[in-house]
Amino acid sequence: MRGDLDQIYRDLRPYAFAIAYRMLGSVSEAEDVVQDVFLRLAQAGDDQISSHKALVATVTTRLAIDQLRSARARRENYTGPWLPEPLLEDGTQDVAATAETTDSLTMAFLVILETLTPPERAAFLLHDVFGYDYGEIAAMLDKTEAS
Description:
The protein has 147 residues and is an all-alpha fold. The chain has helices at 2-24, 27-43, 52-74, 95-104, 107-115, 118-129, 134-141. Helix content is 69%, strand content 0%.
């Protein structure tokens, strides 16, 4: 089991981080969520889990929503636009690739994310970025498919 968990962590950690970072916009908060996800995965019995990837996506999404709700409650009144924390690379990318990546994050996308509620943000990201269908998203968010 321990070896399997190590392999699952290596395989699914980037996936969980991608979900958490896109929802939270903060590297440190995303890392905290990912660590909590894999702690919960380690505590869960392996016999109860049919898909580790689905469990990781569901738990990451729900923990990120909880984090967003608490962040909005404690956020100071800031009138400027919300922007995600830049994700720093290891420096091996060339300048052109970095500029292309930077250009891919448009202000419209950031405005959309800020105006959505946490569950709406989760549904948007899971569907449009990660390719989940609405039935799977509804199960992850514990909502009906129509909502």
